[in-house]
Structures are given as C-alpha cells and as structure tokens.
Specification:
single chain; alpha/beta; 39% helix
C-alpha cells in the first residue's frame, strides 16, 4: 500500500497485522522522535535501513511510525515494514514437524531469514536494486505477498520494527539500530494487556510467559542486542522517553 505525506512518499506494508500510527503522546516524545530522525537523515542522503528492536510490547511499532513521520517532514521518503511479516508459514512447521511454539522453537524456527534478506533488506540498502517487498507472508491470513514489489527512490529510508532484529542473520544489513529499553515485567504486562483482547487473558499470559519471554531470554543471552544498538532509548514512559546513549564512531 502506498500513502502520501506532505513531503516524502510513504510506503506501508500490506499486512493485516499492521498497526495504525499512534496519537501524539507528548511534545517531549515528538522532540525525541524528531531528533532521532534528524540523525538518521544526516547520516547519508542515500537509501538507509533502520531497525527498531526491543522486547515484545516495548513500543517498537509506534516508535517506528513516529520516526518515519519525522523523516517525511524532513523530505525523506519512507518504507515501513516488520520482520513479523517475514516468517515461515505455519503449515510448513506442521508438514515438516518442527517446533515453533515453545520459546526455543519460536526463536530458532519462526523467521524466514532468507526472504527478509533477499526481498526486503538487501534491495532497500545503499547498493540495492530498490525493488523492495514490504510483506512476505501475512501473519494473520497466511497470504503470500512476495510478488508485491514497490520501487524505493535513492533517498528512501526503510524503518523496520521487530523483536530479534539484531540477530546475526540480519545484523550486517542495518545502517542504524535503535534499541527500545523496557524491563521484562513491564513489557510482559503491556503485551498481555494488548493480546488479551484477541486471545483472552489466560492464553495471552501463557503466550508471553512460555513463548515470547522465553525466546527473548535466548536472544538477550546469545546476541546481547543492546550492546549492538546505535542508539538506546528508555521507553518505559511513553510520554517521556529518554535517550540513554549513542554508539560512538
């Protein structure tokens, strides 16, 4: 799907899992998003790929939307995507008999690394073709969207929100890595509250405890994603996020 802002073009994923842009939380949050967008835009006039990572329910999608809007106000076209739209199909797990339900199985087996690299991140990079797929498979309907290609201009910025975005399978393809810092208890409470609407409170609690939280603990131990971030943001208080640090260099 393509939308248009006042200045730069805005390309959005066709996924039915896509969340709407949030209402402004505060002037302080808007200033922080503007500051981050300015640093991203100043890093290069060419195509850029930005990852927004953090625990489940850390606020990644909302912050991705906010930074994208700020970039468009600076005249940069934006592309929005999530690695949740680049997962292996559920039927494949059933047919091949592998686990993607437990925390370990979800972390090891759920994501389609090859499609994300070849269809999304590679083409969107500075030396890429610009022919970008923003959604591999819809995570809700299972529909295959790998034939839906958009053309990213030379100055376009791709903003991707996802857990596990700094995994070694992707990490070499980011031009900027943003980590949203939220403690595990708060993240789990937010996630359960969000997902209880669809799953019910008991199932949402089980999913976050046994799958998402368990998978995140593996990621944190193996990858140490915060140490890889170019900018770390305390996102515990939506109205008052704080930049905790930038990577030197």
């Amino acid at each position: 799907m393509q939308a248009f802002s006042r200045d730069g073009q805005a390309f959005e994923s066709v996924s039915t899992w896509r969340q709407p842009a949030p209402a402004p939380a505060s002037a302080a949050r808007a200033r922080l998003a503007n500051d981050v967008a300015a640093k991203v835009a100043q890093s290069s006039p060419g195509r850029l790929r930005v990852a927004v990572d953090g625990r489940t329910a850390a606020g990644k999608t909302s912050f991705g939307h906010e930074v994208a809007a700020a970039l468009r106000d600076l005249g940069r076209p934006t592309l929005r995507a999530s690695l949740d739209d680049f997962k292996n199909p559920w039927r494949e797990a059933r047919e091949l008999g592998y686990d993607r339900v437990s925390g370990e199985g979800y972390y090891r087996n759920a994501y389609d690394f090859r499609s994300a690299r070849e269809l999304l991140l590679g083409p969107a990079g500075p030396g890429g073709s610009g022919a970008v797929v923003l959604c591999g498979r819809d995570p809700l309907t299972g529909e295959d969207h790998r034939d839906k290609v958009i053309s990213a201009s030379e100055g376009a910025v791709l903003i991707v929100d996802s857990v596990f975005a700094f995994r070694p399978e992707y990490n070499d393809l980011w031009d900027c890595r943003i980590w949203l810092d939220v403690d595990s208890g708060l993240a789990r409470r937010r996630g359960v509250s969000r997902d209880a609407v669809m799953e019910g409170i008991e199932e949402a609690t089980r999913l976050h405890r046994d799958r998402y939280h368990a998978a995140e603990m593996i990621y944190l131990a193996e990858v140490r994603p915060r140490s890889l971030a170019d900018v770390v943001i305390d996102n515990r208080d939506f109205a008052n996020p704080r930049i905790l640090g930038y990577r030197r260099g």
